[in-house]
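dumping this here so i dont lose it
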């Protein structure tokens, strides 16, 4: 009886682990370094990913870590072996170093993919 319970538990964990596995391959670095930015200017970067699963995927949600960062993404499914894009804008309103996190949630994948933006905001003289 114990072996049956253990076997059932392992089978259940196997199906859960498939929800945690990444369904995408990032074609661009997951951390983007802007370098030096001018104060109160907007900087834009596009992250590209490839669907490496055997089914279409959809970006369910993209959550930036603060109000200074906004994201835009398509709502259409990305077919297997196709490329999708997430456009991220950073409003450089605070001076100094920054590192911002952007969580990306894909359909059928519980764990978020985490992207980063970083750089240095300088005052224009």
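and the seq i came up w/
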């Amino acid at each position: 009886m114990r072996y049956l319970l253990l076997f059932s538990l392992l089978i259940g964990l196997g199906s859960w682990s498939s929800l945690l596995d990444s369904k995408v391959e990032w074609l661009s670095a997951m951390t983007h370094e802007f370098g030096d930015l001018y104060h109160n200017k907007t900087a834009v970067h596009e992250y590209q990913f490839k669907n490496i699963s055997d089914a279409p995927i959809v970006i369910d949600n993209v959550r930036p870590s603060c109000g200074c960062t906004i994201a835009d993404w398509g709502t259409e499914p990305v077919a297997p072996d196709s490329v999708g894009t997430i456009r991220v804008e950073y409003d450089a309103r605070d001076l100094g170093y920054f590192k911002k996190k952007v969580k990306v949630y894909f359909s059928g994948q519980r764990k978020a993919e985490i992207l980063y933006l970083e750089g240095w905001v300088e005052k224009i003289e």
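The two ends are 76 Å apart (CA to CA).
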